[in-house]
């Protein structure tokens, strides 16, 4: 399949040679999949926990794996290697790639140096395989605050937004917020952020505290917003956190996918939480995509609490006028 394909031969492999692996043999958190319809292939991005803070003589970087069939992937190829002096020095997390005005933009989380915060910045490239370069003026999330997992959405009026998590490590009660972006995506518009999820005020019956013993902190996690317009016009947002065991008679208290809906389709809401969880299988940090045959799919990482064994999983999705149903493996 790959031996006769020369169009990716100029890409730079991360290591000495390119590898070929099945999807379940990859170890990535926060997976995101971009379908290139013109070239009939897929680009897989994610958080590589072995290298997101650098390793040996390598500075941190972002990579991609390429597939024709969502089963076998080739890589890893280098898609972003920061220039000297780049503000993000570690925690290269949760890259997403979106097309906007004919270019490709990567929304990715970075942590600054000593005394600097974590935030989502925007990179730019001419192709989904990169190379990406610095585009935004530093992070486009809230200045002076701990933020992560920014995702991109363009509303029905053509206005670009970033939706992101305001971290539990700062707030205890994590939140998900939205900010409008300037048309060129170089920075956020000065505005009061829209609050979509507030784990203190929303009284979610399923959520539980998480604990980071390394820093003796507990709190209510908000992770991984992703937006999708439903056929009926409502706006769905998926996100992830940790649930109590046995919620609604099932589940093991692991990582989950929750959802909320803006029925009028506007970012400003009002937003309503979906009572049940969209997925309670110790899998999350999800994104939706249409495969090359036009089928709606979801990509997540599974085995969340088995650190070092997290791997991407691709699931079928059934869509209705006002919601989605995620099918776990062979359901």
Written description of the protein model:
The protein has one helix spanning 168-171; strands spanning 19-22, 29-36, 41-47, 62-67, 72-80, 90-100, 103-111, 118-125, 133-134, 147-154, 160-166, 175-180, 194-198, 210-212, 217-219, 223-229, 235-242, 255-262, 271-273, 284-290, 296-302, 311-320, 323-327. It has 331 residues and is mainly beta. The relative contact order is 0.12. A five-stranded antiparallel sheet has the order 1-5-4-3-2, with no helix packed on it. A four-stranded antiparallel sheet has the order 6-7-8-9, with no helix packed on it. It has a four-stranded antiparallel sheet with strand order 10-11-12-13. The chain has a single domain (19-327), classed as 5 Propeller (Tachylectin-2, Chain A). A hairpin with a 5-residue loop joins strand 10 and strand 11.
Low-confidence stretches: none
Query: What's the CATH topology name?
Result: Tachylectin-2, Chain A
Quick one: CATH superfamily?
Glycosyl hydrolase domain, family 43
What structural class do you assign from the helix and strand content? mainly beta
Strand percentage: over 45%
Strand neighbour order, sheet with most strands = 1-5-4-3-2
Shape: globular
Largest sheet: 5 strands, antiparallel
CATH top level assignment: Mainly Beta
**Integer average pLDDT:** 94
SSE order, one letter for each helix or strand: EEEEEEEEEEEHEEEEEEEEEEEE
Number of helices: 1
- Please state the CA-atom Rg, rounded to the nearest Å: 19 Å
Helix content: under 10%
Distance between the termini: 30 Å
Which architecture would the CATH scheme give at its second level?
Answer: 5 Propeller
| Number of beta strands | 23
Number of domains: 1
